[in-house]
## 1
Amino acid sequence: METPTVHHGAMFDTNELVLNMGPQHPSTHGVLRVVLRLDGEKVVDADVVIGYLHRGIEKLSENRNWTQIILLTDRMDYVAAATSNVGYCETVEKLMSLEVPRRARYVRTILCELQRIASHCLWVGTHAMDIGAMTVFLYAFRERELILDLFEEFCGARLTYNSMRIGGLPLDIPPGWDKKVLEFCKIMDSKIDEYETLLTHNRIWLERTRGIGVISGPEAAGLGLCGPVLRGSGVPRDVRKDEPYAAYDEMTFDVPLGTSGDTYDRYLVRMEEFRQSLRIIRQAAEGIPDGPIVGKVPRLIKPPAGETYHAIESPKGELGFFIVSDGKSTNPYRFRVRSPSFCNLQGLRRLVRGHLVADVVALIGSIDIVLGEVDR
Amino acid sequence: MIDQLVIPLVKILIVLNATLVGVTYMVLLERKVIAWTQSRLGPMRVGPYGALQPIADALKLMIKEDITPVRADKWVFTAAPIVAMVPALIVYAVIPFGDTVNLFGREIPLYITDINVGLLYIVSVASVGVYGIILGGYASNSKYPLLASLRASAQLISYEVAITLTLVSVILVAGSLSMVSIVRAQESAHVWFAFLQPIAFVIFFIGGLAETNRSPFDMPEAEQELTGGFHTEYSGMRFALFFLAEYANMIVVASVATTLFLGGWLRPFPNVAWLSFLDVIPSWTWFLVKSFGFLYIFIWVRATLPRYRYDQLMRLGWKVLIPLAIANLVITGIVKVLLL
Amino acid sequence: MPDDPKAPEAHAPKAAVPAGPPDPAPPADLAPPAFLASLSEAIADGIAQTSYFVGDWTVVVPVARLLDVARHLCDAPDAAFDLCSDVTASDWPTRPQRFDVIYCLYSTRHRHRLRVKIRAAEHEGVPSVSGIWPGANWLEREVYDMFGVNVTGHPDRRRLLMPDDWQGHPQRKDYPLEGPGELLMENPIDWLKLRQARDEADIE
């Protein structure tokens, strides 16, 4: 970053203030560092510095066998680990041209959508907390806990699930689990209204989020933004609809779109996604077909030589895996994750320009990042 | 001798200690109320239902290492918490906690003193407290506290204007600056001033939130933005002083609001004869109950509302509250002249 | 290594390194999408090779024509790839053009995908596409950081994930897996002293 410039005003010369936000800061959602150049409290420019949580998952994966990598994908988006599991397994299945049984695809859909709700719960809590509404945080965590209980029952873990296998599921759903999922849907319905009562029509919330970080659809697409951030700008882009995976082609659901592309629209899009996710979960949980849970998977997983890119819609946006197999070894030759948080975070610099310090916090919250996924 | 020296000293001692204990328990109350709002339990470990938590907190803060940053302005850095704390405490000198009581054959009024410019005294002393925040932020020689102290000075000065204007309209109605006389005026007017001056009451309440840096106006300490604001660099007892000053100020605002607008120590409907059985309850209880109600609302607001942004806060202050307060003052004056 | 008679280099990968991805040609009965035809019409030498594998279309483009092809794919109405979803690379050290740089493109209008691939030698300049898709900015920075691909014309070419003073490019296949060189492994105390001296110099 260049040295601060000096404005020569009519009466005073004013210096720009360089403010270092993070990596230890209460609302950078982990170890994000933003170097802000301020004119008073107005942001002139921002430099987003990442890499504090870089663990080299891509490099690590090149030295693990195909099944061991599932465990590493848990550690990327650790608030929606099952989604990463599904994304990775589907990519390998695509590389091997494996058929996944319908039962497994339905359960994957349920898990993905439960994760979306869990991740959005975390998002709405922290986003509201950043703007100062502290109660929503604990309400949202109360419901997230129910989802974690469901996951615990399914795979024994509460955060890093390792809940998927190449070709299907590691184990069948426990008896009565689908009933519990439906019960959860019933509880969740009213709770979303509860969050909305606290925020959606709250005047301070409106003032804090409307017109903040406005970005148009084409510009958002050009910046590589994805997921709810892109949809908040009105671009109908949802991997679940456009390139269906798991059992999404058999589900009916709407893709909520924003109109003005500001923080408030992104908020509304995600709130509506809660409801659409519940809709998908209901359809999937009521219609889980009988049958095997694992397809015809060879004992030794060794995809043919070649490369492929496969994307799924994680709670944060398009989560893509680009995998190169050399066809000879039991580990990938190149393992690349296109993480939605990484690409969305890139837009932060564009979004914060011209806003105030308080809005920076609101905008970091509104693009919903997980640093584990940004840095990998 | 006893009237001149001993009784005031005893009263000062009682008020000072009661305030400090009250302030620490205010912290517990806040944590408990917010926890209940958020479907949690709050502190439960120290003492039954966490009742001894404030003592544990105080102990912890006292034995914590007291850090002064190398580049801080050491004298100002040390003085700032004191400057914040002292005004918050000496304001209690003029607050009437109750009516006169008869103790050991002596008539003892339940206030330390009743000066005829009581309200003026409160306003002027309370505004000194702002310096503590500004100096603390400035002396830390760090960017976050600096931004916070800029915010604080702008915010507190502009909300002080609104508050003082509402106080003037109350003075017009009561015809006195003395706190005790204002309570008596409400007794003789047969109505609390909250009903005579509803706009002033609301503006005072909002301004009071802003004056005490309470949510949704807690910009100077906005944890999520400025990592704690003006007290980012403070630790240990000096941090505790800032912390206590904030809560002491909250109690001051609640007490002043009770005195000015809710009839102070008066029981509800002080002029209705058949309610006179309520006189069994001592007058200071009414005062405490009313102030507690205020404090509860303070906490409730904090648990519910998001935070305003700095520029929105200034806009609210200068474009809404101050014009309203001025209009209220003018109308009060006109009505007063025409009707009386 | 039993299957490798020659003594391996100091940190060379253990398994025999393949020379590159197979990039299979599309089957004869599968017609390439229309935008590829119009691309090769508009830019004659734009496509060096077309390949199809498990449902993905890939075109290999000469480095010199990358910007033209990218501009065409972004602007042409039948292609309209407005979203550059990923830029990445893979390293094939036995090849003279050791890097594959891969651009995963997506069109939000037509909902189709395409992968554009270029092959670049170690110091060969790869023009930045961040002028066409601003979102490629960080992705190219990461490619530079991780592989040392010489991205030219980039508005802000700095390391992204690794510290600024990092030596080497970790995602290369010949990067030592043990960490930053032998000094750390053999003489950790010296290494720590060196670090400390450098950090202190930084602070002052």
Note: Confidence is low (pLDDT under 50) at residues 1-14 of chain C.
## 2
Amino acid sequence: MSEQEPYMEEEQEPSSARLILTLGIAGFISGLILVSVYLYTKPIIEKNKAEALKAAIFEVLPNTSTYQALGLMEDGLQVLGEAEDAPEWVIYEGFNGEGERTGFALPGAEPGYQDIISALIGYDGSDERIIGFKVLESKETPGLGDKIYKDEAFQLNFKALGTDPNVAVVKKGEKSKDNEVEAITGATISSNAIGRLINGSLEQWKSPIRAYLIRVRDSSGTPQEPAATRSTADSPTTSTEGGGGHAQSNNHAL
Amino acid sequence: MNTKLEIQDGAAAQEFIKGLWKENPVFVAVLGMCPALAVTNSGINGLAMGLATTFVLISSSVLVSLLRNAIPKQVRITAYIVIIATFVTVIDFLLAAFFPDIHKELGAFIALIVVNCLILGRQESFASKNSVGLAVMDAAGMSFGFTFALLCIGLIREVLGSGSIFGFGLFGEGFEPWIVMILPPGGFFALGFLLLGFNWYAQRKKAMA
């Protein structure tokens, strides 16, 4: 880039108008290209995100075949209709093939060692236990902090984890109580972040879910009938329509 | 401008080959260090970064070479940056849409291709002065050289740091990975030893000649 142009002096200075015009045209064309590529890729990118979320819901809630989105409204948790604008806080309620509730998928986010870790927590509302956990996004150190989602042993912590009064992170091999998570050796900060993430999410959702469960039981005695928003594992079209809308709006809540 | 109107086969091949070896952007010119060190913690990441850069460099070179007489020299750098940034954003969107996993791994470094001095450097010193054919050969040579270098660094770091090649385990259970190799210092180690090897080879060749 250090080369001197030999023709610097020979040519006449182009007018400012020409310079501005050149850059204006360049910017305009560039803008057109970017807008068209953006519009072309946007639905695909959003579909990817919705599908990743959907896969995560089925993963953190074992035996789930359908789910519906619940939004936190002023009067507690409400089933979200398809056309409704999703509120800021959304969780997902999973059902198995017989229509029995398998649990709730709760989003959570917490700063880790590098950046915000966002995750989905599988929560059994009646037992008040954690039954699954999946990291959705994290930039933790490769080889150390990324074990929060790569290490099998760490994942086993979340198969059946008590939450009373909250979740505690302890050193590896020192787990003695039901609600304790064994940290990853060499990744204490990331492990502790997971603990805080779970506790933060539970603090927010535990009582709305309790209230919701009581309300549902009182009103029908049986689990709530499937709403229009329910998505099925085997029919991807309905699920993208139903889950997709909420999934997008959920992303910034994460 | 010393525009070559005709593309001679020899000249074109020359422009292509120089980027691969003699003027390799990473090992000889030591350009584009930021992506070369930052994203090469595995072979596939190095390869993906190299290919994304290849797309941007070749497309920008074609456009800059085509427009070399239309862009006034006073605003040429700005115009190059606009062109490069456009292609970078395009590849960013495309990767997010079609290869979400790779896009997640490379993260912010895709957007940072804009400031890779290799790309602006080739526009300023080559594409803006040569015909489209030669510019493409030059860009292809340089970007394949860059991709090759990133792949080398990525593979070395992956083999030592994770004990695998492109995600396939190599050594079985008994291998304790050198975690430092996939952390940032590992990038410097791998690059340092590769530069050492490259320079040693070049000097020995010179001494023998």
Note: Chain A has one domain: 39-241.
